[in-house]
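Entry 14. Ran structure prediction on the chain below.
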Amino acid sequence: MPTLPVLNNEQRWRAQQEDRVVLEGGPLPFFSRGSVQLWWYDPVAQQSVILGTISGDFRAQAQFRLKGSGGEALEVPYRINLDYGLTAISPAYVERMQRAGYNESVEAYVFLTPEIAPR
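Output, structure tokens:
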């Protein structure tokens, strides 16, 4: 039986994204009229975690369907503890990000909801 290739952390994250389309000219501005959850996929533990909630302006660089749930989502660049008012995320999450090789920023995501619109 052939063995599966070993994936790096970036490839594990991309494997969760179906029908990924990079937004032309991105990252592009979006706006949320209400609070939406900002998620991050931990490629080491292979699970998604909620970093917090955001509202108002944010930027997105790609759109995709999340594998498994099929939910439409936007990929949101997030500078750890700097962007979108999320400046004190759980130290345990920061540690998980660092274990996955991310020290300054991660590619997070939000699910597309009626509250989200392009700017």
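Residues 91-99 form the longest helix (9 residues). Will compare against last week's run tomorrow.
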